[in-house]
Design goal:
Elements: H1 6-14, H2 20-24, H3 42-55
Length: about 60
């Protein structure tokens, strides 16, 4: 494994720090039609439907 110089470590960390503009820039508020809702019970119901479907008699 190669050793990294202190300068390289600092430069690597600077890549991920946000700039002053990006920190202060406000994001626009999405309209009601753009907001995606999440139904937390859907995955549970989908699994149940698959179980019921798998246990039905086929013919």
């Amino acid at each position: 494994m190669n050793r990294r110089s202190p300068t390289q470590i600092v430069l690597d960390s600077l890549i991920f720090t946000p700039t002053r503009r990006s920190r202060n820039k406000t994001k626009p508020t999405p309209t009601a039609s753009e907001v995606k809702s999440y139904d937390p019970t859907y995955p549970l119901l989908a699994k149940r439907w698959l179980r019921v479907k798998a246990r039905r008699r086929h013919g």
